[in-house]
Design a protein that fits this description.
This protein is of the alpha/beta class. The protein is globular, with a radius of gyration of 21 Å. The chain has 15 helices and 15 strands. It has two domains: 288 residues, TIM Barrel, CATH 3.20.20.70; 91 residues, no CATH class. 36% of the residues lie in helices and 13% in strands. Helix 4 crosses helix 5. The chain has an eight-stranded mixed beta sheet with strand order 1-2-5-6-7-8-9-12, with helices on both faces. The N terminus is likely disordered. The chain binds iron/sulfur cluster (SF4). Iron/sulfur cluster binds next to helix 11 and helix 12. This is DNA repair photolyase.
Length: 425
């Protein structure tokens, strides 16, 4: 890796941000945001996600906000007030009390930034006041203190999980916060004072040349072991033009070719070396490939994304969790699927085909597919996005579609088309 330039301190220090109340972004400024940034409640793979605060000063080079032209918004601002946001969440047609997994501020800010944290707690406490017991995923890399854990511990109904993004990267061009002990200190504090809150080491992004050397991997695993987190979840990096360009402009080598990907990249070899490093470490903290697997296993629940429908994901999962998922995994009947399409207000003519471990659909779009997947705890796939054996739903960079797999994709298209024709009969 090339020598690191001397960087100014992270924006959070430069801007002197203090826990003052956030401002609501003026309407004319909101009108200039990318529609995805303006989307306050939307489905993501790991849950229905509330994002009414936009802006982050942490400057992580691979940040997803690059994709929506928001990376330069360093000061968090609200799109609506927090009480309005909670109403929008619970009134959302895909929100089901006690059932729908939720995510908080996982798209456009960090929920433990000084200005954002009061809103994180306000949302959690309002959901709790309503007696809602939904799982809530909260992803952070910032300061979490003992008093924060005590406050989380006072929640009676809502079930929070803290996921600490910690990659072992020490290149400040990629992660300015990596030069501090902030995240490791937070993991330690959270795990030591977790009460009913679950604590996960979110090992990401893992990228060849950045943090895949044996010492760095062993260091991350050691943090997990020493702190006694409930689980480790590992994953790769979103390889898109915007963040790759940003990183390359800083002199950071980005190891993948310029075929941009809609899913995270984690080549098969890298997956194998992560699993091997974990096995070699001998630690007892379980390792998962999927966020919802780590979260649900920590709560002793079956995975709400039904990943057992892709059984090669589960070879590292503890046997008692596999048993839980196996017992829960049940394909919806065609009537149940149609009823769910209607309940959520989706196109009732959506073609679908229930197969072993997944439902094949066409043109539902991610937002609707994820709502159905969470509802049934069963994988719902788009026919045009093939799941390649052992790519684990990740980008196909590092995997090659064999002629047989190309055939399988063609066959899936044909099966779905045939089932739609059959429905027309
Ligand atoms: S059994 Fe499979 S689907 Fe269930 S939590 Fe484990 S890895 Fe995930």
């Amino acid at each position: 890796m090339t020598a690191e330039p001397v960087l100014p301190p992270p924006t959070i220090h430069r801007a002197g941000l203090r826990p003052t109340d956030l401002k609501v972004m003026p309407a004319e400024q909101q009108a200039t945001l990318d529609p995805y940034m303006r989307l306050i409640v939307g489905n993501r793979k790991s849950g229905l996600s509330l994002n009414h605060i936009v802006g982050c000063p942490l400057d992580c080079g691979y940040c997803v906000r690059h994709f929506w032209g928001n990376f330069d918004d360093k000061v968090p601002q609200m799109l609506v007030t927090t009480p309005e946001a909670v109403e929008m969440l619970v009134a959302h047609p895909e929100f089901l009390p006690h059932t729908t997994p939720l995510q908080l501020f996982n798209k456009a800010t960090d929920p433990f930034l000084p200005g954002v944290k009061p809103h994180t707690f306000a949302v959690l406490e309002e959901l709790d006041r309503r007696g809602l017991s939904n799982l809530v995923l909260i992803i952070t890399r910032f300061h979490v203190r003992e008093e924060d854990m005590a406050r989380l511990g006072r929640l009676q109904y809502i079930r929070p999980t803290l996921l600490f993004t910690y990659s072992g990267i020490n290149d400040a061009r990629v992660e300015p916060i990596a030069k501090t002990s902030t995240t490791v200190d937070s993991i330690r504090t959270a795990a030591a004072h977790r009460g009913n809150t679950k604590v996960i080491l979110y090992w990401r992004p893992i990228v060849p040349g950045w943090n895949d050397d044996p010492d760095t991997m062993a260091g991350v695993l050691q943090v997990a072991d020493e702190t006694g987190v409930d689980a480790i979840v590992f994953t790769g990096y979103y390889h898109k033009e915007e963040n790759a360009t940003y990183l390359r402009d800083l002199g950071v080598p980005v190891p993948y070719a310029d075929n941009w990907q809609r899913r995270k990249v984690l080549p098969g070899e890298l997956d194998a070396s992560v699993v091997q490093a974990w096995r070699d470490s001998g630690i007892s903290i379980p390792l998962y490939r999927k966020t919802s697997c780590g979260v649900t296993a920590a709560w002793k629940l079956p995975d709400y994304n039904g990943h057992l429908g892709v059984p090669e994901l589960c070879d590292i999962c503890p046997s008692e969790q596999v048993a839980r998922c196996r017992q829960a995994l049940k394909a919806p009947t065609p009537d149940e699927f149609r009823t769910a399409l209607e309940m959520f207000g989706f196109d009732p003519d959506t073609p679908f085909l229930i197969e072993d471990g997944h439902v094949l659909t066409a043109k539902l779009g991610e937002q609707r597919r994820y709502a159905l997947q969470h509802y049934f705890g069963y994988q719902v796939w788009e026919v045009e996005h093939p799941h390649v054996h052992s790519a684990h739903g990740r980008a196909l960079e590092g995997y090659t579609l064999t002629p047989e797999e190309q055939d399988l994709l063609e066959q899936a298209r044909e099966r779905l088309a045939a089932s739609a024709r059959h429905d027309d009969d």
